[in-house]
Design a protein that fits this description.
The complex is a heterodimer of chains A (113) and B (113). With 113 residues, chain A is mainly beta. Chain A has no helices and eleven strands. In chain A, strands 2, 4, 5, 6, 9, 10 and 11 form a seven-stranded mixed beta sheet that branches. In chain B, the strands form two sheets. In chain B, strands 2, 4, 5, 9, 10 and 11 form a six-stranded mixed beta sheet that branches. A five-stranded antiparallel beta sheet of chain B has the order 1-3-8-7-6, with no helix packed on it. In chain B, strand 9 and strand 10 form a beta hairpin. Chain B starts with a strand and ends with a strand. Classes of the chains: A mainly beta (113), B mainly beta (113). At the A-B interface, strand 5, strand 9 and strand 10 of A face strand 4, strand 5 and strand 9 of B.
């Protein structure tokens, strides 16, 4: 089984809908991240969390919110989806003690019509 | 603000060729520099991580170098194989915030038989 899983893997939705992307990890890591990837722009950090009670905004947090329900679960929500949020979304984890390396999930391809 | 650039954006080579992928960064105050591989439908896989105090790291046919003074890192792939076909991303970690990775836009590599 994969160490970092993301659901759903693909999602098509309409403008204005609320969407939640979920991430779970079995690595026992304390730190979790959400990125989005757009063609020609690389990956950009949306939010990151050091533990359940410590959540931080990344480079492009506007229009997004997150919830760290447990050490192993980190969800990303789009409160009111818009077309320019169409992208590939990745969750990643890292260990404080081995904080240098981040482990990525397989990604969620989101299309907002 | 750190900016990471990768050149070329795409590269196509015959099997067996040695090749070099380039990564440039604007702020030399980095904690580390990582190289990732991205395959379609899959997440990113960490290949090599070079700490700021190191000059290079090697893993199998891969060798990554780091020159902070010139703001450059290179990924050398020896005896390329079709299985090396993927997108290669470099990412710089900030010296004062090691959790924030700044990614380049990637080099798409195709190795043909």
């Amino acid at each position: 089984d994969a160490d970092v899983t993301q659901t759903p893997r693909n999602r098509i939705t309409k403008t204005g809908k609320r969407i939640m992307l979920e991430c779970s990890q079995t690595k026992g890591h304390d730190r979790m991240y959400w990125y989005r990837q757009d063609p020609g722009l690389g990956l950009r950090l949306i939010y990151y969390s050091f533990d359940v009670k410590d959540i931080n905004k990344g480079e492009i947090s506007d229009g997004y919110s997150v919830s760290r329900q447990a050490q192993a679960k980190f969800s990303l929500s789009l409160e009111s989806a818009i077309p320019n949020q169409t992208a590939l979304y990745f969750c990643a984890t890292s260990d404080f003690n081995l904080r240098d390396t981040q482990y990525f999930g397989p990604g969620t391809r989101l299309t907002v019509l | 603000k750190q900016e990471v650039t990768q050149i070329p954006a795409a590269l196509s080579v015959p099997e067996g060729e040695n090749l070099v992928l380039n990564c440039s960064f604007t702020d030399s105050a980095i904690y580390n520099l990582q190289w990732f591989r991205q395959d379609p439908g899959k997440g990113l896989t960490s290949l090599l991580l070079i700490q700021s105090s190191q000059r290079e790291q090697t893993s199998g046919r891969l060798n990554a170098s780091l020159d902070k003074s010139s703001g450059r890192s290179t990924l050398y792939i020896a005896a390329s194989q079709p299985g090396d076909s993927a997108t290669y991303l470099c990412a710089a970690s900030g010296f004062y915030n090691t959790d924030k990775l700044i990614f380049g836009t990637g080099t798409r590599l195709q190795v043909f038989p």
